[in-house]
Automatic annotation (TrEMBL):
Pfam family, one: DUF4349
Keyword Membrane included in the entry's annotation: yes
Transmembrane segments: 259-284
Organism: Proteobacteria bacterium 228
Name this protein carries in UniProt: DUF4349 domain-containing protein
Coiled coil: 151-209
InterPro entries reported in the protein's UniProt record: DUF4349
Keywords: Coiled coil, Membrane, Signal, Transmembrane, Transmembrane helix
Signal peptide: 1-23
Keyword check for Transmembrane: yes
Domain annotation DUF4349: ranges: 85-281
Length: 290
């Protein structure tokens, strides 16, 4: 008789834990659907769970007095126009800055000058936020023709994920405590291990989401584009005519190539069809003479 009440207690505990995690997940989904690019002060926030309120208060204590700590994803875009002789060296110099600063290269690509196509290069890096200002200063503004900043508030997502982590860790610890109870029956142990495995999987997923958000908010992504500086000849009034002549020639030779390909493909069939047709005509004429 002692095993029955304990089974009910385990089932009831699992149900309460599941309901609590479901409510927390709903709060996270609601936060994820908030408009991007707005600051936390402008967000229409849903009523937070008690754990979320507690974490928000702790974060606010760590921030400046009277301000709530914010987690902002920042993305910067810079476009340079340089003389063709300086493009590759400038691109390489900027890429080498990651060896000096706390940053990682996400993507680096350069294309040399080809016929009817000028050289260009791209570089994408993530820089630690405390070193962003020094990194931008080291880049310099020589040839800089365009600069833009895009920010997205991730505060609600971070708070929800941290609340979910706290919930899951507490549930995991309680399940482990129940599993270590010596009076647990075999059925209780099986049920507890199944629930513990599910909670541990949710906990690992939440940790991965938190690490992803940390990478977005603790570092700044900077995309740099490099172009050859336009010259007078590039913007000449006859350039459209030159482009039209080039395109017309390309179309003409492409058509010639297609006709030649068709003729070559038809040639084997002509070798078979012409003798066959000649034989048939000869037979018809002979029959008509008789």
């Amino acid at each position: 008789m002692k095993g029955i009440p304990r089974s009910f207690a385990i089932i009831g505990f699992s149900l309460i834990a599941t309901l609590g995690l479901t409510a927390c997940q709903q709060g996270q989904d609601a936060a994820s659907s908030a408009p991007s690019g707005q600051m936390a002060a402008g967000f229409a926030k849903m009523a937070p769970a008690p754990q979320r309120m507690m974490l928000a208060q702790e974060a606010a204590q760590d921030a400046a007095p009277g301000e709530q700590q914010q987690f902002i994803e920042e993305h910067r875009y810079l476009r340079f126009q340089l003389p063709e002789a300086d493009l590759q060296s400038t691109w390489q110099k900027h890429a080498d800055l990651c060896q000096k600063f706390d940053c990682e290269v996400i993507n680096a690509n350069i294309q040399t000058t080809q016929q009817y196509q000028q050289a260009r290069a791209t570089l994408s890096v993530r820089v630690a936020r405390p070193q962003m200002a020094d990194f931008l200063k080291a880049l310099g503004d020589a040839g800089l023709v365009e600069s833009s900043i895009d920010r997205q508030d991730r505060t609600d997502e971070v708070i929800d994920v941290e609340a979910r982590l706290k919930n899951l860790e507490e549930v995991r610890d309680r399940l482990r405590g129940l599993l270590n109870t010596q009076s647990a029956s075999l059925g209780d142990v099986v049920q507890l291990e199944r629930e513990l495995g599910r909670v541990q999987g949710d906990l690992d997923a939440a940790k991965g989401k938190r690490a992803y958000l940390s990478n977005l908010t603790e570092k700044v992504r900077i995309d740099l584009n490099y172009e050859v500086q336009p010259t007078f000849s590039d913007s000449s009034i006859i350039q459209p005519l030159i482009d039209a002549l080039y395109n017309s020639g390309a179309v003409f030779f492409r058509s010639v190539a297609e006709v030649l390909t068709f003729a070559v493909a038809l040639l084997p069939w002509l070798i078979l069809l012409i003798p066959t047709a000649w034989i048939l005509v000869a037979l018809v004429r002979r029959k008509q003479r008789k």
